[in-house]
Amino acid sequence: MTDALRFVLGGRVVEVPQADPAMTVLQWLRANGRCGTKEGCAEGDCGACTVVLGELDGGGHHLRYRAVNACILFLPQIDGKLLVTVEDLADGPELHPVQRAMMENHASQCGFCTPGFVMALFALHRTGGGTDDDTIHDALAGNLCRCTGYRPILDAARSLPPKDPATDRFDRAEGGLATLLRSIARPDALTVSGQGRVLHQPKTLADLSALVLAHPKATILAGGTDVGLWVTKHLRTLPEVIHLAEVAELRTLVEGEDRLDVGAAVTYTALLPVLERRLPALAALVRRIGAAQVRNSGTLGGNVANGSPIGDSMPALLALGAELVLHRDGQRRTVALEDFYLGYRRSDLREGEFLERVLIPYPRPGDVFATWKVSKRRDQDISAVCAAFRLTLAEDGTVAEFRAGYGGMAATPARARALEAALTGGSWSEAAVTAALPALDADFTPLSDMRASDRYRAAVARNLVLRFLRHTGGEEAYALETAHA
C-alpha cells in the first residue's frame, strides 16, 4: 500500500497522494503555482531554488529551521515537515524584515536569484545567526548571483535587525505550526509509489535492515546531495529507493573518549560543532563541503558510502584511520576505510548490507593532523586534489608513523602507502621529505580532466606534503620560511 505524502505549507496541511518518488520539491512547487523558487543549475550549486524546512525539536514544541536546495530534494524527503518558500514570508502587505532589508538596500538586481538569497537570509535570521561578515558569507556561499554586485546583498544582511519574537510572525505562529506538525507525524514507515517507482522511508534500524534485505538492488538515499544529481543531471531512473534519514538510530552522534561514533544519517551541519571541538582541522574542511544548503542535507555517511574519488571527507578519514560499521540483518562487521573501496564507485558492501556508522579516531597526544582542499573556488567547488596527513614523531625526532590520504588522484580515495613507507623511520626534515616525494609516483597516476591536468595534480600532491612539513613547524621548516620571508 502506498501512502499519501503530508507536509505543512502556507499554514495548512498538504496531502499529495500517489506522488512520483523522484519528483523534486522544486518541480512540485512550480507545478503548483509557487514559482518564486527558481531552477538555475538543478544540481545544488547556485541556490536559486533555496527553500527552508522546519522540523520539531526533540521536545516536540519548537521548530528548527534549515535552508535546503529544492532542486535535488525529492518530495518524499519533506514528509512530516514544514516547507517555507519566498511566498510565505510577507504578512499580508507587511514585508518580512529580510525582504525589507533587501528592498531598502537595492539588493534585488535582476530578481531571478533574489528569492534564493532571501530564503538563505531568512534561515540565518530564524536561527539568530548574527550579522558579522564571516557568518553572512557562510550563509550565502551557496547562492550564486548571475548579475554579480554582491555588495548590496551583503549590506542587506548586515542591516538585519535581531530576531524579535514579539514581532516575528513565525514566532507568533510557532504553536500552531507545531500542532500541525504533530498531527501529521508518522510513527511508522512511509512507502510512496508512482510512475513505476517506489520509495521506502523506514523509521527504525530493524525496518531498514529488513528493507535492504528484501530490496538489495535499491538505491540507498541519505541527504540526496549526490543521488539527486543522478536524476536531475544524469536522467537516471531509480526504480527502488530506500531513504534512511528518518531512522533514529542512524542520527546519533557519540563523542567517545578516543573516537567519534557518527551515524550514517548525521548531517554535516549536525557534525560540525562536534568537529570544531574535537577535530578543528577537519571542521575547517567540512565548511568547504558545499555550502549551508548542502551541509544541511548531506551526510558524512552518504559521502563515504558513495565513494566518489573526489569526495572531500575520505582523505581525512583515511589519515585518521577511520573504520566503518556495516550492518546486515542484525549482524555487524567493522572494516577499515582503506579496505572499503575496491574500485571506481565499487565498495566492499555485500548484498543486503548497508553502512551504519563511521568511527573516527582522535589524533593521539603529540600527533599532528592537517587536511587541505585545492580547488578553483574556495566555496561550492569540487576538489582538484584533497589531502590529509597525520604524523607521529618518536622521542628522537624520527617519524614513528605517517599516514597520508588523498582524493582526486585515483579511481578511489586512497592512502599514499609508498610515501608513508619512504618517510617512516627517517628524520622529519626538509631533506628527508623532499627525498621521499618521488614515492608518490608509485602511489598515483593522476588523470587530466576539466578540473586539473595530471601534471598539476602530481605537483599539488607533492606540494601539500611540503606544506604539512611547514605546518608542523620543524626547525628546518622554520629556517626555510624565515629565508623566504
UniProtKB/TrEMBL annotation:
FAD-binding PCMH-type domain residues: 191-365
* EC number per UniProt: 1.17.1.4
Range of residues in the leader sequence: none
Which keywords, in A-to-Z order, does the entry hold? Answer: FAD, Flavoprotein, Iron, Metal-binding, Oxidoreductase
InterPro entries noted in UniProt: 2Fe-2S-bd, 2Fe-2S-bd_dom_sf, 2Fe-2S_ferredoxin-like_sf, 2Fe-2S_ferredoxin-type, 2Fe2S_fd_BS, Ald_Oxase/xanthine_DH-like, Beta-grasp_dom_sf, CO_DH_flav_C
Q: What class of enzyme is it?
A: oxidoreductase
SMART domains attached to this UniProt entry:
CO_deh_flav_C
**PANTHER family in the record, alphabetically?**
XANTHINE DEHYDROGENASE
UniProt xrefs under NCBIfam families? xanthine_xdhA (TIGR02963)
Instruction: Give the protein's recorded name.
Output: Xanthine dehydrogenase small subunit
